[in-house]
Amino acid sequence: MRLKDFFSSSSLVISLFISIFSHAFPKYVCCVDFRYAACNSSVECGRLGKIQYPFSVNGSQPQYCCHPTFQLHCQKDEATMWIGHELFHVIGIDNRTQTLKIARFDDLSMGNITCPNLNISKDSNTTFSYPSDVKMITFLHNCPQIKDLSSYEYPCEINNKNIHSYFVANESLAKRFISRCGYCALLPVLRSAADGLMNRSLKVGEALSKGFEIRWTTNQTQCKECIESGGRCGHDWNSSTPSCFCRHKSDGQTCSLSK
Q: Phi first, then psi: what are they for 33, rounded to 5°?
């Protein structure tokens, strides 16, 4: 075989091989979307286990991997989360029912807290709602002695001075006497903890340290469809809309066209 013919045949074989290879393996096979790679589900946070969208662990993933309201801070296997201007311990996350179990940071860190004086209210944050297992308790402080509330009085000390304080689970009853007290706080507790307060099997600090549940109301349907199509969920902070990051192409709500 002449040298010219050899190179000609070799070139034909190489060209044919390249053609077949390029059709069988698209050129983007090596180009994984950087957002898809970053928003993986391998990040864990102590007893909460693997963290999934809409949550992320602050510092371990870019902000586009989670909803801006759901950033967790993990330290020594404990998770905390800011809701509004308050810091909470995150006791548990149930992605199936979209339920968080949380306790106000001070309430869980100081199980002997006796004089709660700050409201916990989700009214200004429509991202969350209270499930039926939560009961609102009104705490009245710096009151005169109120005979009708004597069954609900408990010890409270402010600046080394004992003041008359009461916890009231009945809203209409609390409203009757709220004007006679110096200040009040409206706090959510688990119904089981509220029952414990009423029958005196739990102290105020013990009831509050058990935390309470809230349900996040963001629509998870789109994220579910994204995951089922092979994608990973994220969030566009500029437009405040969910995102779907696909392995090779992320320009839709699912990855059906780019798997």
A: -55, 130
The closest alpha carbon to 257, from 222, 231, 235, 236, belongs to 231
Choice among 34-48, 50-64, 98-112, 172-186 with the minimum mean pLDDT: 98-112
Residue 255 to residue 164: CA distance in whole angstroms: 62
Residue 95 to residue 11: CA distance in whole angstroms: 57
Q: Of 13 and 241, which is predicted with more confidence?
A: 241
175 pLDDT band, cuts 50/70/90, is: very high
What does the block give as tokens for 128? 């969350």
β-strands 56-57, 71-75 pairing: parallel
- Cβ neighbors of 251 (< 8 A, separation 6 or more) are none
Contact 180, 129 (CB under 8 A): no
